[in-house]
Amino acid sequence: MTEDEALRLAEALVFASAVPVGARALSQLLPETLDADAVLAALRERYAGRGVELAEVGGGFQFRTASDLAPLLRKVIEIPRRLPRVAMETLAIIAYHQPVTRPEIEEIRGTSLSQQTLDALLEANLIAPKGRRETPGRPTLWGTTPQFLAQFGLNDLRELPRREDLLLDPIALPGEAGEGGQ
Question: The whole model's pTM is what?
Answer without folding.
Answer: 0.54
